[in-house]
Amino acid sequence: MQALLSVYEKRGIVDFARSLHQAGWRLISTGGTHQALAQAGLPVQQVSELTGFPELLDGRVKTLHPRVHSGILARRDRPEHLAQLASHGIEPIDLVAVNLYPFVSTVSRPGASLDEALENIDIGGPTILRAAAKNFPWVIAVADPDDYPWVAERVNGGGVSLEERQRLALKAFQHVAAYDATIASYLGRREEAFPPELALGFRKQVDLRYGENPHQRGALYVSPLEEGGVARAAQLHGVELSFNNLLDADAAWRVVCDFAEPTVAVVKHTNPCGLATHPNLAEAYRRAYAGDPVSAFGGIAASNRPITLEVAQEMAEVRYDIVLAPSFDPEARRLLAKRRTLRLMEMGEPGASATPSLDYRRISGGLLVQTANTLQEDPARWRVVTRREPTSQELTDLAYAWKAVKYVKSNAIVLAKDAMLLGMGTGQPNRVTSVKLAVGVAGQRAAGSVLASDAFFPFPDGVEAAGEAGVTAIVQPGGSIRDQEVIEATDRYGMAMVFTGVRHFRH
Known about the structure:
Strand content: 15-25%
Largest sheet: 6 strands, mixed
Number of domains: 3
Structural class: alpha/beta
Number of helices: 19
Distance between the termini: 57 Å
Number of strands: 21
CATH superfamily of the largest domain: Methylglyoxal synthase-like domain
């Protein structure tokens, strides 16, 4: 029995090789792996001795040889395959242990060049691993060092069963496919966003307790080429994160990262029920919480600035599931950690990673892909369509409301004033109901506020409901066949209205 061992990551390989040797296996290896095994006192043959060829092209060609691939790919149930091996003096290879060049860690380094990336694309490793996985009824393919201990135990015992070999083969193909997909994603950054064939390489980070509901299974996968974000946040305290926690946390983090000034968001079911911006972070939190204190219970609070003790003292009075921030002052962390179940997530500094460049939505039989909604807009280019122009304060409030409405599920309506979300209506099949919900949450605060609508008003009824509540100005995309009726209704209530020409649906 022969085993070919060729690994970049040396973790566990010496102990694994020793177990194989003790079971009577012959060891074959390459380069650094051969050196590690030889230094450990194990008898190991260089691949170059097996093939009769030295390593070529600075090590680019080592295992790409008929003596290697024939030994792996020969079917043991076909006499003609075995006869061909014998006629050429080739012995079967019965186990392949391979892991690949560190492409991800190479391209993740700041300033990594294209040449460095290309040099760290493994060719021989995936080739022999795929060959072993293809022939799994007779060959054991080991791609993960975590599998060494149990494979070694089986080899020294009753052997690796066919079912176990198939699982190892599946793991090997998944590993190679993800590796290739990551390379394609890296090279695709220089090309079009939507290639003819889409390869996605994600690595499982952790199994979740369950999915959206206890009867559903769930797991978290991370993109090797994306840094930061909720998927890679450091959980400082609290119980295990759930599927829904991660969705809500991501929604909250994306909101606050879209604001340059100190901002706090309170999110419930991925919608911001509270949002406020203020130079004093504690005041920003108080205003965000005041936006909808009822909905804040059991929600998620996010800040784009480090959490201070003053902010933590305010937050500690409310039952939150998660608090996210770039960091936590030590005193703030100790105070919030008194609640055993509260998750504290340290995000690092806000940046572009808060919003991935592409958005993926799974549908039955396919995948929808779109670029992220990161359009930067200039309120100075908005068009006033009513008799009354918005005041400078109203225009400031409208710009704030327009940014906030992007993060509310359609049909989305928000009321805002003084950099504070006062009420929002979300997820309704008609827009007037969303207006009434937003007005209901705002209550008396609706008077003197401004309104943002993520898409046009199809009828005047939504505007009329806003006017009755005392809203003074409206921002919306425009584009309805009834725009003129909507504008006339706005004029009747003495409100100002601006058209942006841009829609912000969020389904």
